[in-house]
Amino acid sequence: MATKRTTPKKASASDEPVKCRPCGGTGTVAATVRIGRKRRPVGQQDGLCLNCFGSGTDPES
């Protein structure tokens, strides 16, 4: 049987979650709204970041 650890594990600087690059950690990105047959842009709205699915953390790390 393994012995119990007597000292707590120290938190390192690398334990902090890395922000998602496309959304900058907010979880939302601007999506262009297009209308009409020529698909002209009329504005922008907030959309869910598809890289991190709204969590704001980088899934690669």
Key words describing this protein structure:
61 residues; mainly beta; two-stranded antiparallel ribbon; 2 strands; rod-shaped
Give an overview of the whole structure.
The protein is an all-beta fold. The chain contains no helices and 2 strands. 0% of the residues lie in helices and 28% in strands. A hairpin with a 4-residue loop joins strand 1 (28-35) and strand 2 (40-48). It has a two-stranded antiparallel ribbon. The two termini are 33 Å apart. The mean pLDDT is 83. It has strands at 28-35, 40-48.
Outline the fold blueprint.
Layout: E1 28-35, E2 40-48
Which class of secondary structure composition applies to the elements?
mainly beta
- The share of residues in helices is under 10%
Please tally the helical runs, counting DSSP H or I stretches of 4 or more residues: 0
**What is the terminal separation in angstroms?**
33 Å
SSE topology string: EE
Average pLDDT score: 83
| Strands side by side in the biggest sheet | 1-2
Report the β-strand fraction as a percent range: 25-35%
Can you tell me the residue ranges where pLDDT is under 50 for at least 5 consecutive residues? none
Largest sheet: 2 strands, antiparallel
List how many beta strands DSSP finds.
2
Name the shape in a single word.
rod-shaped
Radius of gyration (Å): 21 Å
